[in-house]
Design brief:
The chain has one domain (4-65). The chain is built from five helices and no strands. It has helices at residues 4-9, 18-27, 34-38, 42-50, 55-65. The longest helix is centred in the last third of the chain and has 11 residues, at 55-65. It is globular, with a radius of gyration of 12 Å. The termini are far apart.
Length: 79
């Protein structure tokens, strides 16, 4: 199953669907944090939590970067 950001980029979900994704996570969080479940990096998630109007910019940046998945390197370069 693809995540919220991936579905927004592919236009399978709208920005307003984020609440449904959050509800799904609350029902069965598994081993993922919420930001991972949504498909956001920690920085993207922090920006969205601080300012919900940042969500369109997050999706747009992913769409134009050609990268719908957050970085898999939690420690950054050289970690």
């Amino acid at each position: 199953m693809s995540n919220f950001i991936e579905q927004c980029v592919s236009r399978q979900a709208s920005l307003e669907d984020i609440d449904n994704f959050i509800d799904q996570w609350h029902e069965n969080p598994g081993n993922q944090s919420l930001h991972e479940f949504l498909g956001m990096t920690r920085d993207e998630y922090a920006n969205w939590v601080a300012d919900s109007s940042a969500l369109p910019a997050i999706v747009k940046a992913r769409k134009y970067s050609g990268n719908s998945a957050p970085s898999a390197s939690p420690g950054g370069p050289g970690a």
